[in-house]
Amino acid sequence: MSRPSTNASQETPSRDTISPAILEQASLWMARLWSDDATDAQRDACLQWRQAAPEHERAWQQLRAIDGRLGTLPSHAARSKLFEASPTVSRRHLLQWGGVALLAGGLGFGLPRTPQWQRQFADYATGIGEMRDVTLGDGTQLRLDTDTAINVSFDAHQRRIHLVRGGVLITTSKIADARMFSVMTREGLSLPFGTRFSVQQHTDSTHVAVYEGRVALERRGSDERTTLEAGQQAAMSASRVTSPTPLDPTEIARFQGRLVAESMRVIEVVEMLARYRHGVVRCAPEVANRRVSGVFSLQDTDRALASLADALSLEVVYRTPLWVTLKPNLAK
């Protein structure tokens, strides 16, 4: 299998200057171009992506530089079927899973912080664009959002869910259980009392929305608790818990595979859809602040983009299935 050629410098970039998101995009491009059926149009599109920003080219060179180290994964990674000794495990398979993006952070350095690593080694997880229903041993029901990873720890004294990344809708069991139930995120604990609620782990905060019952929020390192009643939501950061505010009635729709937009900016719709599909989704600056109302599918993002374009007379431009841009439709 031949590799795409490059005229770029072979200097290995500093891993500190490359975001994990860009590394994952680079790994997807490399996986596509290392396949036997890669087309000239795809090679041209990849070159355009590399030239679009200096960080793109640095990410590309980072992956090329570590190509020779694909066989040096740590032994405990054998938990993944992709790392088992098998002639069917190709370089492209590893790239599609995100293996090279993991290695780009340095073997053994920073791996637990990457999305691919967190999903692969969690008790329950979903990929990008996937949702999953889970019923725990005590009868608690979970709905995992896209790109989510959780670990579950039940013992004789407590029932705890660790939300590593993403979001989860939780309906606690109706069966009486003396063990305390809690959801742990980076910022602290969410302690429900006979309830249905959702928890989202953002970059620097935890967002909690309560649909039934009550949930107490306890920030890490603090004994103070903020209680949310049904119909309320709040955010918890490292320094504080925001005051409860009325619940956004459209929030729960995302766990049902729908984006309900009410006078939402195009850029906000695009950013939400991007969470549910691989690759890059962008909109031209001149349409970013236009507003739209409607219901869009999160399970079929191509259809959602087409609906958005129809509603505002825009054009959906596919450079590749992994690179989509919304632009003004100059023909109308």
Automatic annotation (TrEMBL):
Domain FecR N-terminal stretches: 24-65
Coiled-coil blocks: none
Domain of life per record: Bacteria
Span of domain FecR protein: 123-215
Protein name in UniProt: FecR family protein
Organism this protein belongs to: Halomonas llamarensis
